């Protein structure tokens, strides 16, 4: 294995670790609340003679079971919406990558239960009315209150689910995927009249009405406040504009931003914001970008690689362009740090949040290591900045260059193919278990690093990573 450059200058400072600001119990509270909401729905179903009807005959069994699946599906849909409402307590407890996974998982369960609800109710009504399935379906859709809106809601939710499948996500641009997912809100809104007008559990129980109206109000309030109101307020308060655009490499661009009192924004190194640049058509499509430098009193910097979507517009931004912001988001920050030493492992544009963390975090000379993987020397973003930072703060820097290893899933380049992944990591970061390890890069590469680190004895709570795929 070849270390292209190692820098270990002397620099002294007293390290004082930052206290954790996100209580650990918040995560448990969110999980209990989600499971608790499902339990409440089941109890409401039981109070509406749901269990007794299971033994009343085939038609009532199907209808009662259909009621239950529909109620749980509606509740999970609200949970799904609430998880992605950008509520700070939830976002900081889980991180956007885990929230996105849970959001997707809950969404698939909700959708499958919705399909079960449709089938069970329709077949149950068919048996009860001694009708044909097609005739009963037509009767339900055209004569029951709110059913046409419910059909539209189902179509909207089906579109969201289909575009959430991994193959579909790969075929869509981020902006297109994000726009299509707004139909989830349409689906929720259109399903409400059906529940009010024809939902037996809603219309016959005052307690159920209180619960469902409260649940809808909380979900809607979270969306309006955290996804609309708070971003608008922050945008107006800080007045962020573009002040310069710098090309870091052939396909990587940095944008320097200025604003009023950005220290009050609460953004930390390692986090990202969603930006909308008011530079012409397409301004309404937001894109998430990580900070690539320590946030200052009135300055922020973001860096992105041209991925063929909104990021390709960054190079054409002009000084003075006004910016709308959402955030900050993400938990790849110093709050999760446990020890005094830090090791940063970056691949490609994944250096962006880690470069900001290296500048921002407190540590003593010799207590920080950076391992930066890139295809070639010209692909090393921030090389001069990293080496200046290394000299100032005593960071050991390793550059690993070359193509990926062809015959195994490894985080090492082809030139280091003779090395075992965990042994190579221990050689670059001796006494690995004494470090907090921050990892950022493509998902397969991050998986390989995580496996190597854990095999080398790193405690799981000292491994910090956040995935930015959607």
UniProtKB/TrEMBL annotation:
Names of the cofactor(s): FAD
GO cellular component: membrane
Keyword Zinc-finger: no
Cellular compartments annotated: Membrane
SUPFAM superfamilies: Ferredoxin reductase-like, C-terminal NADP-linked domain (SSF52343), Riboflavin synthase domain-like (SSF63380)
UniProt xrefs under PROSITE patterns: FAD_FR
FAD-binding FR-type domain ranges (all copies): 235-335
Highest taxon, organism lineage: Bacteria
Membrane topology field: Multi-pass membrane protein
Entry's transmembrane regions: 25-46, 66-85, 106-127, 147-168, 180-198, 210-228
GO MF terms, alphabetically ordered: 2 iron, 2 sulfur cluster binding; flavin adenine dinucleotide binding; metal ion binding; oxidoreductase activity
Record key words, sorted: 2Fe-2S, FAD, Flavoprotein, Iron, Iron-sulfur, Membrane, Metal-binding, Oxidoreductase, Transmembrane, Transmembrane helix
Family matches, as InterPro entries: FAD-bd_FR_type, Fe3_Rdtase_TM_dom, FNR_nucleotide-bd, MRET, OxRdtase_FAD/NAD-bd, Riboflavin_synthase-like_b-brl
PANTHER family on file: 1,2-PHENYLACETYL-COA EPOXIDASE, SUBUNIT E, NADH OXIDOREDUCTASE HCR
UniProt name for this protein: Putative ferric reductase
Lineage, opening ranks: Bacteria, Bacillati, Actinomycetota, Actinomycetes, Propionibacteriales
């Amino acid at each position: 294995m070849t270390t292209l450059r190692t820098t270990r200058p002397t620099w002294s400072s007293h390290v004082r670790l930052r206290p954790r600001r996100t209580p650990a119990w918040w995560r448990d509270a969110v999980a209990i609340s989600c499971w608790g909401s499902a339990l409440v729905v089941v109890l409401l179903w039981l109070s509406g003679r749901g269990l007794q009807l299971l033994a009343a005959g085939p038609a009532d069994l199907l209808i009662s079971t259909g009621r239950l699946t529909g109620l749980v599906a509606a509740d999970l849909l609200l949970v799904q919406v609430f998880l992605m409402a950008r509520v700070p307590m939830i976002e900081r407890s889980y991180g956007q990558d885990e929230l996105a996974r849970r959001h997707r998982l809950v969404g698939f369960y909700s959708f499958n239960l919705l399909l079960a609800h449709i089938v069970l109710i329709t077949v149950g009504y068919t048996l009860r009315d001694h009708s044909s399935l097609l005739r009963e379906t037509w009767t339900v859709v055209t004569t029951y209150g709110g059913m046409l809106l419910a059909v539209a809601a189902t179509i909207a939710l089906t579109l969201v689910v289909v575009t959430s499948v991994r193959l579909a996500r790969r075929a869509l641009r981020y902006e297109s995927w994000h726009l299509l997912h707004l139909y989830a809100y349409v689906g929720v809104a259109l399903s409400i009249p059906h529940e009010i007008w024809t939902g037996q559990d809603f219309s016959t129980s005052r307690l159920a009405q209180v619960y469902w109206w409260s649940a809808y109000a909380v979900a809607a309030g979270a969306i309006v406040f955290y996804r609309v109101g708070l971003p608008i307020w922050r945008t107006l308060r800080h007045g962020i504009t573009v002040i310069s655009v710098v090309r870091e490499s052939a396909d990587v661009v940095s944008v320097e931003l200025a604003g009023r009192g950005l220290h009050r924004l609460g953004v930390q190194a390692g986090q990202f914001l969603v930006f909308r640049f008011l530079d012409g058509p397409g301004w309404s499509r937001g894109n998430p970008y990580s900070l690539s430098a320590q946030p200052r009193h009135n300055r922020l910097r973001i860096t992105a690689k041209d991925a063929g979507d909104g990021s390709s517009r960054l190079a054409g931004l002009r000084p003075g362009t006004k910016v709308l912001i959402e955030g900050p988001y993400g938990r790849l920050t110093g709050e999760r740090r446990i020890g005094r030493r830090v090791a940063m492992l970056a691949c490609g544009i994944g250096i962006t949040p880690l470069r900001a963390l290296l500048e921002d975090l407190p540590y003593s000379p010799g207590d920080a290591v950076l391992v930066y993987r890139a295809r070639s020397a010209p692909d090393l973003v921030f090389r001069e900045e990293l080496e200046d930072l290394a000299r100032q703060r005593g960071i050991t820097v390793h550059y690993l260059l070359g193509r990926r290893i062809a015959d195994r899933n490894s985080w090492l380049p082809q030139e280091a193919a003779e090395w075992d992944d965990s042994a190579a990591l221990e050689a670059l970061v001796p006494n690995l278990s004494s470090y907090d390890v921050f990892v950022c890069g493509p998902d397969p590469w991050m998986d390989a690093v995580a496996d190597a680190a854990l095999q080398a004895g790193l405690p799981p709570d000292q491994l910090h990573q956040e995935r930015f795929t959607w």
